[in-house]
Amino acid sequence: MQKDATITDLLHWLRERLGNTFAITDHWEADLCAIGVSAPDDPAQLVYILSWGRPAGYYAVELESAPPAGSEIPYKDVGKFDHVSRDELLGIIKKHLQTPK
């Protein structure tokens, strides 16, 4: 994976704390400062993380889930945060992905 160090460092930090309780879901391969993490068994339950334009250690975060049945939209927006620290992000991921750790 070719991502900015802000993203690769964050993913390493998250793996140390969450283990394999999340999957990398990269719908933004061309965006070096963005990544998605999802529930391993449900890629629609996604946390989009962006480091671009944020101070070191802070991120913009958007939460997505599966759209309502019969909907033509690809996902449902369920939350948005603009200035999230690593520790806050960890809590958001745990809650949104319902990780056991």
Describe this structure in words.
This protein has two helices and five strands, in the order H-E-E-E-E-E-H. A five-stranded antiparallel sheet has the order 1-2-3-4-5, with helices on one face. It is α+β, with helices and mostly antiparallel strands and 101 residues long. Strand 3 and strand 4 form a beta hairpin. Helix content is 26%, strand content 35%. The protein is globular, with a radius of gyration of 13 Å.
Describe the secondary structure blueprint for this structure:
Layout: H1 5-18, E1 23-24, E2 34-39, E3 42-50, E4 58-65, E5 76-85, H2 86-97
Antiparallel strand pairs: 1-2, 2-3, 3-4, 4-5
Structure described in brief:
Helix content is 26%, strand content 35%.
